Amino acid sequence: MPKFEYAPAPESRSIVSLRESYGLFINGEFGPSVDGRAFKTISPATEEVLAEVTEAGPADVDRAVTAARKAYEHTWSAMPGRERAKYLFRIARIIAERARELAVLESLDNGKPIRESRDVDIPLVAAHFFYYAGWADKLEYAGYGPAPRPIGVAGQVIPWNFPLLMLAWKIAPALACGNTVVLKPAETTPLTALAFAEICQQADLPPGVVNIVTGAGETGRALVEHPGVDKVAFTGSTEVGKQIARACAPTRKKVTLELGGKAANVVFEDAPVDQAVEGIVNGIFFNQGHVCCAGSRLLVQESVYSEVLASLRRRLATLRLGDPLDKNTDVGAINSAAQLAKIRELSDVGEAEGAERWSPPCELPVKGFWFPPTIFTGVSQAHRIAREEIFGPVLSVLTFRTPAEAVEKANNTPYGLSAGVWTEKGSLILWMASRLRAGVVWANTFNKFDPTSPFGGYKESGYGREGGRHGLEAYLNV
Ligand code: NDP
Question: What mean pLDDT comes out for the span 215-233?
Answer without folding.
Answer: 98
